[in-house]
Fold:
Amino acid sequence: MLKWLRVKEISLSGGPVLAGVGTTLKSFTNRAAGKQYIIEADYQGEAASLHVKWTFATGKPARLDYTFNQTGDVDFMGITFNYPEEKVTGMKWLGRGPFRVWKNRVPGQQFGVWHKAYNNTITGENWGYPEFKGYHSEVNWATIENKESAFTVYTDNKNMYLQLYHPAVEKDPVKNVIPPFPAGDIGFLNGISAIGTKFQAARQMGPQSQKYHLTGEPISNTLWFEF
Structure:
């Protein structure tokens, strides 16, 4: 009797790449290791590098180990992927919520399991709260609900931030309250950008509102992808 394996197609692509840094692929290897299959790649950019290692094993989530280093002052740091926004329907996660955070506005959220449907809310302009897009803090796992097949990403780093897309901008935007975001759609970040006020840019505010100063020290994380 023939058994057919149905393969799910999930449009997760364009990553992992370093957030805010252009890199070039320098090496790529793949090999079988017992019952596992391992893929490794090294990327090099200006004042930054990224090493990624994927481990695939039957019946287990795909494991991504990565290490990056950067130098200089940055608004955010970590890795990102792309996923078509029009296919997303919601998110369920274990972490702090239900609202998004900024580097200088992290306290105040409650730790727990949260869920919210996709929306394109512009703060103060329409009322689909809590806003779907933005940074989310202390994320332990997150399930991205979509029109293809929901997938879940796990991390063992309690200080991980999850970036979801880019918040929509109001009709008459105030530049100070439009923080920079990584170009990618979904990010797993060790650091996020700060937000200013109507009258002050973030850089004019306190220590928590300043950029991160990176000295090239390696930063390592592990993610598990369950498709």
